[in-house]
Amino acid sequence: MEVSTIRDGFDRVVKKQKLSNSKSQEVIDHVGCEIRDALAKFHSVEDQAFNQKSILSDLKNKLNACGPHSMLEGVQKELNANIGKYMKLLEKYFNPDISKAYRNVDFDFHTVNKILVGHFYRQGLFEIGDCLVNEARNPEATELRSHFWEMHHIVEALRAKDIDPALKWVLAKREKLAVCGSNLELKLHRLQFMEILQRGTRVDALNYARTCLAPLASQKLDEFQKLMACLLWQDRLDSSPYAELTDPTHWAKFTKELTQQFCSLLGQPYESPLTVAVAAGSEGLPTLLKLANVMAAKKTEWQAMKHLPVPVELGKEFQFHSIFVCPVSRDQASEENPPMLLPCGHVLCKQSIMKLSKSSTRTFKCPYCPAEAAVTQCRQLYF
Amino acid sequence: MEIDPPASNGNPSAPAGSAAVAAVASAAAAAAPAASKMTQLTESLKLEHQFLRVPFEHYKKSIRANHRVVEKEVSSVISGVGEVADSADVSRDEAVDRLSSLVSRLQGLKRKLEEESRTEHLQAQRCRARLDHLESADSENLSDWNNTRLKRILVDYMLRMSYYDTAVKLAETSNIQDLVDLDVFQEAKRVIDALQNKEVGPALAWCAENKARLKKSKSVFEFQLRLQEFIELVRAENYTRAIAYARKYLAPWGATHMKEVQRVMATLAFKSSTECATYKVLFEPKQWELLVDLFKQEFCRLYGMTVEPLLNIYLQAGLSALKTPYCYEDDCSKEDPLSQESFRKLAMPLPYSKQHHSKLVCYITKELMDTENPPLVLPNGYVYSTKALEEMAKQNDGKITCPRSGLVCNYTDLVKAYIS
Ligand SMILES: [Zn+2]
């Protein structure tokens, strides 16, 4: 992005604008001065015979002669030219109308508002979410709000190294967490134990281990033993084999894991779906705009497409599904035309295999290596 | 994705023509991911036309308005001098008075100009803040920058939807006031509020203010406002005034919009309670809502904004790019926005994305299966990533359990699949 070129263009506009302003001031001052000069003559000439008429017509002629309009005109012209150039610059370096990629379809704003309210709650912006509910007369999302409220309460507390709200939640969800094989409870106690070990006394740490860690020991015996061994190194954990356990990033990692579990038990994604969709939009829009231009030139109906005619490449963070495209036919695999593994390890779609084998009547050569294959040797794959 | 063929197979024969092209393309795409992230950033910055244009239009507007004021005031002072000079019987005191008042008028103009130049300065600074913000985007702060972009897009949406309080709150808590157009929309708010109260005054004033540009874009907004005012007079059964109004304000549009003029003139023969569909619709309160919509469109066009909210444009593009038939299946990953009912609803009328290359996501880890993490096939044809299966084998003495079919096998039973 040539921001510096654009900036130069803008600076030129500002320079001319300032010049034009001082020119205006100059003109005003000039006109003012002339009038004041004339007034001074009125005051200085006491003589009854002073010629009022000639002073006034002198003033009038002077003002008309200096032509304030022509004085302003030049500089304004220059300013306007620079404004025009800057607008052209913006048009050249940017896409002047991104709505070309927009399809004029029903895009229900109630649905959009609902998504926004959910997004604000998820981000912990409760006041803004409430404000939107109110202003957009959206139905309230009380349940979602209270869930995310609890989540943010837990996260805030963890930030202050207060494990109580997190512990309360973990205990309440103990069974569900066990089903997903999560050991958040143990991890939480481990964090607290290490904290006591570093800030408190050995006795406190030992007591904590007895009451909180021991009942969980069977979950991860080696982990438990390691923690107990830390008691030996209490004053010099940093130089112990367990120094890694004191790493302060463990809190942040734990917070992330808990948030993930929290969202997952809610049936919610970890990342805000709005954030994901808009980020995908900013990656996809440049391609879609190019496409819209081509389609407009070809007069193809952009609105009626069932499939985009070209792929829109998105980063791997946006890959949520396995898509197999047959390297021979370029068709996307489907239930009727599934991907098949050849004995050599290459994968083709079933229809391509049928073609190559002349409807399974003979063996065929793999298009990607010299190996021969028979249809009966090919296996369907499930991604 | 591109996975090398197995070495044991010797020299691979040349693949089919189209496959070769695709292979070149995919190899290019895979090369230097850091560089491609930067290209992507540059491409997405090009979408920010409105971000720079709107504050500049605002600045430009102030510049033009100031020019007009200076020109008007200075020439009226000069003609004031001319009047004094040209009148035959002005007393000395009166001449002094009149000249002095012209001097103070100039002083007033000077003060006003100084004030306005402060406004211009602030507007120029806002334009600069936006340039700075665009320039600040780099690979290090990309995720913060993208978060700010989302907030900008959301503020834009709320301003266009007239959710001003939410817009202001979000801008303030995120400290992005300079990066959004709250003040520009204040101007729109005045007009919209009035239209919602069935008052056309501010809207007409706005038309007068932007007369030249509206005319250039062949806008019919003012005409529609006039029609509505006429209809209101008919509704009030104030026929004499309605006719006078039509003569003055509708007749000038006759040349270009004769049909519409005739249609509303016909309402003089009916009452607002008419059941005739052609005329009934003209009396409906919905007409005022249409005026609000029309105003919003004109307003956005004048400031160089997209007519649709940015959010709708970005969301549509994102959902189109993400939409696959798999999104609508029950086992769609929760992390896919299209697993959510509301997003599915929005995506319903949009086209599916198209894929030229296989993209395989491991069912277990949700990671991409590529050269670094190749796909492995279980004896029953189920495929998972090497990373996932290695980890599983490590934890379970070399045994693999298929999470979908329950099949148990050895890690050694797995075979590699080559996807091109
Ligand atoms: Zn092969």
Automatic annotation (TrEMBL), chain A:
<feature type="domain" description="CTLH">
    <location>
        <begin position="147"/>
        <end position="204"/>
    </location>
</feature>
<feature type="zinc finger region" description="RING-Gid-type">
    <location>
        <begin position="326"/>
        <end position="369"/>
    </location>
</feature>
<dbReference type="GO" id="GO:0005634">
    <property type="term" value="C:nucleus"/>
</dbReference>
<dbReference type="InterPro" id="IPR027370">
    <property type="entry name" value="Znf-RING_euk"/>
</dbReference>
<dbReference type="InterPro" id="IPR006595">
    <property type="entry name" value="CTLH_C"/>
</dbReference>
<dbReference type="InterPro" id="IPR024964">
    <property type="entry name" value="CTLH/CRA"/>
</dbReference>
<dbReference type="GO" id="GO:0005737">
    <property type="term" value="C:cytoplasm"/>
</dbReference>
<dbReference type="GO" id="GO:0043161">
    <property type="term" value="P:proteasome-mediated ubiquitin-dependent protein catabolic process"/>
</dbReference>
<dbReference type="Pfam" id="PF10607">
    <property type="entry name" value="CTLH"/>
</dbReference>
<keyword id="KW-0863">Zinc-finger</keyword>
<feature type="domain" description="RING-Gid-type">
    <location>
        <begin position="326"/>
        <end position="369"/>
    </location>
</feature>
<dbReference type="InterPro" id="IPR013144">
    <property type="entry name" value="CRA_dom"/>
</dbReference>
<keyword id="KW-0963">Cytoplasm</keyword>
<dbReference type="InterPro" id="IPR037683">
    <property type="entry name" value="Rmd5_dRing"/>
</dbReference>
<dbReference type="InterPro" id="IPR044063">
    <property type="entry name" value="ZF_RING_GID"/>
</dbReference>
<dbReference type="GO" id="GO:0061630">
    <property type="term" value="F:ubiquitin protein ligase activity"/>
</dbReference>
<dbReference type="InterPro" id="IPR001841">
    <property type="entry name" value="Znf_RING"/>
</dbReference>
<keyword id="KW-0862">Zinc</keyword>
<protein>
    <submittedName>
        <fullName>Uncharacterized protein</fullName>
    </submittedName>
</protein>
<dbReference type="InterPro" id="IPR045098">
    <property type="entry name" value="Fyv10_fam"/>
</dbReference>
<dbReference type="GO" id="GO:0034657">
    <property type="term" value="C:GID complex"/>
</dbReference>
<dbReference type="GO" id="GO:0008270">
    <property type="term" value="F:zinc ion binding"/>
</dbReference>
UniProtKB/TrEMBL annotation, chain B:
<dbReference type="Pfam" id="PF13445">
    <property type="entry name" value="zf-RING_UBOX"/>
</dbReference>
<keyword id="KW-0175">Coiled coil</keyword>
<dbReference type="GO" id="GO:0061630">
    <property type="term" value="F:ubiquitin protein ligase activity"/>
</dbReference>
<keyword id="KW-0479">Metal-binding</keyword>
<dbReference type="GO" id="GO:0034657">
    <property type="term" value="C:GID complex"/>
</dbReference>
<dbReference type="InterPro" id="IPR013144">
    <property type="entry name" value="CRA_dom"/>
</dbReference>
<dbReference type="InterPro" id="IPR006595">
    <property type="entry name" value="CTLH_C"/>
</dbReference>
<keyword id="KW-0862">Zinc</keyword>
<dbReference type="GO" id="GO:0008270">
    <property type="term" value="F:zinc ion binding"/>
</dbReference>
<feature type="domain" description="CTLH">
    <location>
        <begin position="184"/>
        <end position="241"/>
    </location>
</feature>
<keyword id="KW-0963">Cytoplasm</keyword>
<dbReference type="InterPro" id="IPR024964">
    <property type="entry name" value="CTLH/CRA"/>
</dbReference>
<feature type="zinc finger region" description="RING-Gid-type">
    <location>
        <begin position="332"/>
        <end position="405"/>
    </location>
</feature>
<dbReference type="GO" id="GO:0043161">
    <property type="term" value="P:proteasome-mediated ubiquitin-dependent protein catabolic process"/>
</dbReference>
<dbReference type="Pfam" id="PF10607">
    <property type="entry name" value="CTLH"/>
</dbReference>
<dbReference type="InterPro" id="IPR027370">
    <property type="entry name" value="Znf-RING_euk"/>
</dbReference>
<dbReference type="InterPro" id="IPR006594">
    <property type="entry name" value="LisH"/>
</dbReference>
<feature type="domain" description="RING-Gid-type">
    <location>
        <begin position="332"/>
        <end position="405"/>
    </location>
</feature>
<dbReference type="GO" id="GO:0005737">
    <property type="term" value="C:cytoplasm"/>
</dbReference>
<dbReference type="GO" id="GO:0005634">
    <property type="term" value="C:nucleus"/>
</dbReference>
<protein>
    <submittedName>
        <fullName>Protein MAEA homolog</fullName>
    </submittedName>
</protein>
<feature type="coiled-coil region">
    <location>
        <begin position="92"/>
        <end position="119"/>
    </location>
</feature>
